[in-house]
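Renewal narrative, Specific Aim 1. Our central claim is that a sequence can be written position by position from structural information alone. The example that follows is taken directly from our test logs and has not been curated for this report. It begins with the structure tokens describing the chain, in the order in which they were read.
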């Protein structure tokens, strides 16, 4: 059996830990936001718009927004 190091790309969910704004896109405390994986990119949907990230960009976002955003692992 062939082994691979590839990680399955799946949709991810995040909870806003506070109200905040990023590039004019709003996130509300306690709300859960989905980053949909489509065509090799993540589309993170906010209250009033969306972001598009590569896998690396999404990982950087998770680190950069650690105080405002947390991943919801079991939904």
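The sequence written for that structure reads:
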């Amino acid at each position: 059996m062939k082994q691979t190091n590839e990680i399955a790309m799946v949709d991810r969910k995040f909870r806003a830990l506070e109200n905040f704004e990023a590039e004019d896109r709003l996130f509300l405390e306690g709300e859960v936001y989905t980053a949909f994986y489509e065509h090799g990119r993540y589309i993170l949907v906010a209250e009033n718009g969306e972001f598009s990230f590569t896998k690396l960009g999404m990982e950087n976002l998770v680190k950069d927004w650690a105080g405002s955003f947390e991943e919801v692992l079991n939904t």
